């Protein structure tokens, strides 16, 4: 078990280092000058001085050496566009996005599990077809379009919820609903397929023949056996969820990580982009590592292969 965790951590560290290097180099190869963006009317002499202040006047190799040296000191750089350290900017945006993602994941899991199980139990009936139809609809609708429609109906016409900014949890409800729809649709379809496959397995039929109650068959046998493929889908969907949050936060003017990374890329705010990309990569890697470890507890065959832990 410890060897598995250590291996996953080393793999994740290598991935983060590779992403950091690629991001650092690619940002500086883009034909755009952050100093010109920050001061469009400055003279060439003023731009050179500004580049030195921003730390982008040296060759790329020298810049990278200085950046790595600062990383070992715990310093991620300074955002001249926001007049704050990168850590401070991330610290302001991270809790806001955390609330948004938490709500979206809860909505997706609750409705995805319930509707997926119901569709599997009543497979090939009008209930199954109705739920499957809604899942296709949810996955087909673009996030930005759904967001605009909900803003118009819920915020403008009904005045039930705020539509832009963030002051309290109420501001996260609409964007979290929009963000959760595609993930809910994917979970419904995969849980339905996994449950239907598990229900038809011989061990479930044997348990049913022994007189085990239907609810126990559903929860202890079929559902648990369906969790491994569903967890795999869930891990990949979290990456898509993080990517979709950029669009959703932009539509709702939601001041989270997604909005920060979009503005940072448009402004060529190098150090802020690097810090945000490293953060998102680390979160994604940790989540997938947790999912890989959970396989050991869910599947006895994997547990036996790992040394019987």
Keywords:
single chain; 309 residues; mainly alpha; MetI-like fold; two-stranded antiparallel ribbon; 1% strand
Can you put this structure into words, describing what you see?
With 309 residues, the protein is mainly alpha-helical. The chain has one domain: MetI-like fold, CATH 1.10.3720.10. Helices cover 79% and strands 1% of the residues. It contains 13 helices and two strands. A hairpin with a 4-residue loop joins β1 (78-79) and β2. It is globular and about 85 Å long. The termini are close together. 29% of the residues are buried. The model has no long low-confidence stretch (mean pLDDT 80).
Topology:
Layout: H1 2-29, H2 34-38, H3 44-54, H4 60-72, E1 78-79, E2 84-85, H5 86-121, H6 126-140, H7 143-157, H8 173-199, H9 202-209, H10 214-252, H11 257-267, H12 270-298, H13 300-305
Antiparallel strand pairs: 1-2
CATH topology: MetI-like fold
**Helical content class:** over 70%
- Major sheet: arrangement of strands: 1-2
Question: At the first level of CATH, what is the class?
Answer: Mainly Alpha
> What kind of oligomer do you see?
single chain
Largest sheet: 2 strands, antiparallel
Q: In the CATH hierarchy, what is the architecture at level 2?
A: Orthogonal Bundle
- How far apart lie the N and C ends? 7 Å
Order of helices and strands: HHHHEEHHHHHHHHH
Question: C-alpha Rg, in Å?
Answer: 24 Å
Q: At the fourth CATH level, what is the homologous superfamily? A: MetI-like
How many domain modules?
1
Number of helices, where a helix is a run of at least 4 consecutive DSSP H or I residues: 13
- Which class do the helix and strand fractions yield? mainly alpha
Low-confidence stretches: none
What proportion of the residues form beta strands (DSSP E)?
under 5%
Please, what is the average pLDDT? 80
